[in-house]
Queue: 2 jobs
Job 1
Amino acid sequence: MELPSQPVSHSQPNDHNQQTAPVILPGLFQLPVTDVDLRRLSPGALAYLGDAVYELYVRSYYLWPPGRAQRYHHQVVAQVNATAQANHLQTLESHLTPQEQDILRRGRNAAPRRKGQGDPQKYQQATGFETLIGYLYLANPPRLQQVLNYLVLPPPEEASPPHC
């Protein structure tokens, strides 16, 4: 079986840049969750899930053009760290509903205090960002897609030609 050379229907244009943004598939690895279930989850649990969802989103974004795993890794790592996530949060805040801002605040306030591991304020903001992503993934996947489309990710690097 031959793989397609371009992304197929799994992506859509992102209004904020020329690269296509991956579409989060509703129901992907998702169990039906009630409002009661969501309220029972701690901000830490939501951030744990949000971290994985966001990394999958970023990995999907940088998958094109096809290249080597090392190139993918460097591009993804540059976006899934506390500093980059805190910067993304600044882009998003004006687009969030009051309920989403509350989830964000709960996530920031629940971030563990870590000594000697970078800027604690950025870490709190990143944890809030991840909490929001996890919450939206469970509660409202279409809204998650809208929120992710506001992010401005650097365009993927072109694959360098193989060395001979």
Note: Confidence is low (pLDDT under 50) at residues 1-18.
Job 2
Amino acid sequence: PISADPAPQFRNGWAEGVRDPKVEAGLNRAMLSTILHVYTTYRRRLMAQTLSELEQQRSMLAGQLTQLGDLRPGSVTGVIRRCGKPTCHCAQPDDPGHGPTLRLTYKVHGKTITETLPTQASVRKAEREIGEFRKFQELSRSFLEINEKICQLRPVEEAGLSLQEKKRRTPSSRKSPAK
């Protein structure tokens, strides 16, 4: 008689090492059934949003976009440099150099622009504007995701041809005369 191993091994989610193929197949079917149940439950939850709920979320996001303050892309970096004077402390081998000098770096039309931030107030202002830009990016990403869902859920409206489409000429199937 074929006996089942009392403790089957599961590798990558599948039953292995079971001596009885029927028992192994049953365990694998049970695993597949569980996976399928989790998938369908998760998918139903994702699709449960109605068109009106999605439109309401889109309106909420649009309202949040209008509430953003001043924003700009970029990052604040600290630059440590050496001045090049041979008698300066920064010329010593173990000296870290002058700085850090805080700068705002961003790109315009593919070119990197760097602005020096002379005061702590200008650093705080730049960091606040960069933070607002990050919020803008996240809200824009969410806005697009919701719009994609709306486009998928919105039914196709079959409309007749417009006056302009009716007037549009169809190309002739005859050959034009040679010149």
Note: Helices lie at 21-47, 51-66, 120-153, 163-167.
